[in-house]
Amino acid sequence: MNILLITLLEEINPLGLLHLSTFLKDNGNQVTTAFVPLNPKEELFGIEGNRVISDHEISETLDLIAEKKPDLFGMTLMTTHYYSAVKLTKKVKETFPEIPIVWGGVHPTLLPEECIEYADIVCRGEGEGAMLELVKHLENGESIENIGSLWVRDKDKITRNEIKPLTQDMDSLGFPRFDWENNYVLYDGKMQNLNKSIYQQCVPRKGRIYDVLTIRGCPYRCSYCSNSSFHQVYKGKGKIVRGRSIESILEELEYVKKEFDFVGIINFQDDVFLVKRDEGWLENFCNQYKEKIGLTFACKGSPREVSEENISLLKKGGLGYFQIGIQGSDRVNREIYNRTTSSRNKIIEASRVLHKHKVVANFDVILDDPFATDEDTLEVIDTLTKIKKPFLISCFSMTFFPATVITKMAKERGLFSKGKDGYILKATQAKRTYLNNLVEIAPRLPAFVIRTFVKHRGEKLAKVILDAYIYIHFNIIFKIMYSISKYPRLLSFLKKIRYSLSTSWR
Ligand code: SF4
Questions:
Q1: Residue 326 CA, ligand 1 centroid: distance in Å
Q2: Is any atom of ligand 1 closer than 6 Å to the C-beta of 101?
Q3: Which of 289, 321, 417, 434 would you call most buried, defined as having the most Cβ atoms within 10 angstroms of its Cβ?
Q4: Contacts of 279 (CB under 8 A, 6+ apart)
Q5: What distance in angstroms lies between residue 342's CA and the mean position of ligand 1's atoms?
Q6: What is the 3-state secondary structure (H, E, C) of 298-341?
């Protein structure tokens, strides 16, 4: 079958849609994949709201549909793309009423009712099995009404099928591969064939970092995360956390090395890389990775899994960066976020282990949370001053995504309007308050300076100095870096200097 799949994700990523398109292609279908990133360049300086797809972007997408004449049009979306997906779907329906439209991804999985209003078919949960069955039924002219995981609309009648059991054999799903001839991207205002040079322009750091998944699912249930809702959706559908074999992971990494000679860092995007696997898995994996791949890698995990033994094995394998969640104060983590395995002491201990092994820790922190008080933010700042440098920080503004536990709590307590609505606002832009600014600059200034700012909070002079620092750092320096990004050699030289300064272990 001739299928066209599109994604509105801000950047081109091998995970998600590309995995599905590779799977469908490997099963005998002609699949075109189009990336319609909603203007990644504007992301550099941040936009407060989620941008809705423009008429021009819709027109370029319609031209591609006219050219490819697919038998099925699919779109993957998250909450942030909902309004764009609605707008695009209406236009596709108007122009090509004969093509069935299927929506999949996180948002349709959790909120199928509001998606089936626009799409003909909603695919809930992991899409490979259901989509393959859908394609076969359509090809054979059979009814699609009773396919597991699908909601199907036929005029006013909606059939809501149960979610299929989760695929337990992850290796059977293969791994995502680029198919340059059949991959498209809306770049520079035009829908065009994706090639390696455009790919490098569209992804961060010119494609030096490549994302790979070794497991699916997360064992935890943080209240603000869609994974907490997935535990409900997949209840009784089999084990949620499922890993790939070492052979399958290495096969993908060998493909990546061969196809993308500019990749320097493998970024394992698993929610919790150190999740419990078979006895001896980690040691075996690290040894083989070192021998066959040999690239620096990054991974994520909770402080609970960071131990001397684990980190020393990972370091020998090539671990360079470890992303770890602080998120909130102990009270907020325990009472609001359901992060019972995380505590300030564990975070500080995990940071000590990572520092000892010279692994750069990247801490995630949630700001602008109406459930948190200034005392909670001060505790987070205090934790950061106890962590040895160098480390990195990623701040997120609390965003109430629908169908999460925290959104329900916020609505019940009348706090929803004080947070960001996931449909319309970005999660990455924290408010520029005095305390938020201190969190963001904690990795850049000595601990005693941060403590001095904390001590003098509320004083005008302290605020003026902090605002000036923030302005210079986030406006002037970022803009200069953006301007010189047109001169790659100069940029790379400056980055080397900055890197060598920021990784002097203190
Ligand atoms: S550990 Fe991370 S991925 Fe897992 S539920 Fe919590 S926030 Fe979500």
A1: 12
A2: no
A3: 289
A4: none
A5: 12
A6: EEEECHHHCCHHHHHHHHHHCEEEEEEEEECCHHHHHHCCCCCC
The response to whether residue 406 sits with its C-beta less than 6 Å from ligand 1 reads no
Q: What is the per-residue pLDDT across 353-408, written as a single tens digit (0 to 9) for each?
A: 999 999 999 999 999 999 999 999 999 999 999 999 999 999 999 999 999 999 99
Model pLDDT for residues 95-132, shown as the tens digit of each residue: 999 999 999 999 999 999 999 999 999 999 999 999 99
Going by C-beta distance under 8 Å and a sequence separation of 6 or more, which residues neighbour residue 294?
A: 318
Q: Which residues contact 456 (CB under 8 A, 6 or more apart)?
A: 462
**Sheet strand arrangement including 209-212:** 209-212, 265-268, 296-301, 319-327, 360-367, 391-397
Ligand 1 atom nearest residue 219's Cα: 4
DSSP letter, residue 164: P
220 close to ligand 1 (CB < 6 Angstrom): yes
Write out the two tokens for 289.
Answer: 């990775």
* Beta carbons within 10 angstroms of residue 27's beta carbon: 15
d(CA 58, CA 22): 25
* CATH code for the structural domain at 208-457: 3.20.20.70
379 lines ligand 1 (CB under 6 A): no
Identify the CA nearest to 21 among candidates 36, 8, 3.
3
Rounded CA gap, 196 and 206, in Å? Answer: 10
Q: What are the domain boundaries of the chain?
A: 2-172, 208-457
Compute, in angstroms, the gap from residue 222 CA to the centroid of ligand 1: 5
Exposure class string for 118-154: b at 16+ Cβ within 10 A, else e: bbbbbbbbbbbbbbbbbbbbbeeeeebeebebbbbbe
Q: Point out the ligand 1 atom lying closest to the alpha carbon of residue 327.
A: 7
What is the spatial distance between Cα 501 and Cα 5, in angstroms, rounded to a whole number? 44
Atom of ligand 1 nearest to the CA of 302: 1
**Which listed CATH number (3.40.50.280, 3.20.190.10, 3.40.640.10, 3.40.50.1000) goes with 2-172?**
3.40.50.280
